[in-house]
Design goal:
Elements: E1 9-12, E2 25-32, E3 35-40, H1 46-53, E4 62-64, E5 68-78, E6 87-88, E7 93-96, H2 99-107, E8 116-126, H3 129-135, E9 139-142, H4 155-165, H5 168-173
Parallel strand pairs: 4-8
Antiparallel strand pairs: 1-2, 1-9, 2-3, 3-8, 5-7, 5-8, 6-7
Amino acid sequence: MNYSYKGKILISTPDISGDIFSRSVVLVVEHNEQGAFGLILNKKNSQMSSKFKEFFDFKIEVYDGGPVENDKVFFIARGKKVTESFTDITQEFYLTEDIENIISSVLNGDLSINDVKIFSGYSGWSSLQLDDEIQKKVWTVVDIYNLDYTLPNDQTLWKSIMQNLGGEYLLWANSPEDISLN
């Protein structure tokens, strides 16, 4: 491994059809010799969203972070660090699994719910697996600056990024979800 994709965005190509990664936008949180860890930013999980509604008296969206360990919950938060246990993503955003401190901080007003995004599970790659998938063009790596990781994104995020890349990506952005219908 000669290069780390940490902090980059992965955009799935339309060739990935029918699984959780179809039309996914993934933030790579960690990438080193042991493998990679990321979170899908644009796939909502309605079942987990319903479970979290029990903690709050307002609607909250939970996202599928990926297919690995769906029983684990991760948070991307913006601004004030309300826990000792976190990983910096940027100067503005951090990742934590500290459910107690995040929930209590939201409930007592130390942290706005708009500054938190909740994920169930994560996306993981073994050593050199992500590098191999990128080489095979399963993923397009994009540098995106000033992306708000806590926004309630959906499938329009994938399409928007593809359109901004232009060229062949513009064609992919406008292709049907089931590319065999094209």
